[in-house]
Amino acid sequence: GYSRLVLATGADPRRLRLEGDGAADVLSINDLDDYARFRLALTRCRSVAILGAGLIGCEFANDLAAAGYAVHLIDPAQTPLNRLLPEQIGEIFARALGNGGIRFHPGRSVNRIDRSSDSYRLSFSEGEPIDADLVVSAIGLAPRTSLAAAA
Ligand SMILES: Cc1cc2nc3c(=O)[nH]c(=O)nc-3n(C[C@H](O)[C@H](O)[C@H](O)COP(=O)(O)OP(=O)(O)OC[C@H]3O[C@@H](n4cnc5c(N)ncnc54)[C@H](O)[C@@H]3O)c2cc1C
């Protein structure tokens, strides 16, 4: 029995609805098993596309670029960390990412991922596609509400 109940069951990664035979291969990193899969995948690749330039996406981009990977950071917003930083600071931050070797692609949202030999091709509603050996999604989490809904 209890008088108050706190549900703190965590959250699951949000998944983009994507077309293409590479869509199911997109990795999210939200627990240790995810991280083990990610580390294994990194041993086989040189370039990484990250969907989402929030805290997690930017942190992974920075770490991966520092480790020598070619990094594409993709976000529909015009600046990284757009929900946390005002635009002017976001622009400075975007330049800092660029100085660190990260290719930031603002104003873009992928809608299709296809396998292409050893890598993936990310396609958008307009503009040039981007090729990468690994695609990581960091577009946020959805709270696990099923227990609360069922209660
Ligand atoms: C790569 C990465 C880096 C991060 N870096 C930072 C950082 O630098 N700083 C920071 O502050 N945060 C960071 N975070 C976020 C931080 O990990 C989360 O905000 C935090 O773990 C959320 O805590 P939580 O207790 O809500 O959920 P969780 O830590 O996910 O815990 C939920 C728990 O509930 C359990 N559970 C699920 N269903 C049930 C059920 N039916 N009954 C009972 N238990 C259940 C789960 O097994 C789990 O143990 C990071 C996250 C990631 C993925």
Describe the structure.
The chain is of the alpha/beta class. It has a single domain (12-140), classed as FAD/NAD(P)-binding domain (3-Layer(bba) Sandwich). 27% of the residues lie in helices and 28% in strands. It contains four helices and ten strands; from the N terminus they run ββαβαβαββββββα. The protein has a five-stranded parallel β-sheet with strand order 2-9-3-4-5. Strands 6-7-8 form a three-stranded antiparallel β-sheet, with no helix packed on it. Strands 1-10 form a two-stranded antiparallel ribbon. It starts with 10 loop residues before the first strand and ends with a helix. Bound molecules: flavin-adenine dinucleotide (FAD). Flavin-adenine dinucleotide binds at residues 8-10, 29-30, 56, 144, 147. Flavin-adenine dinucleotide binds next to loops.
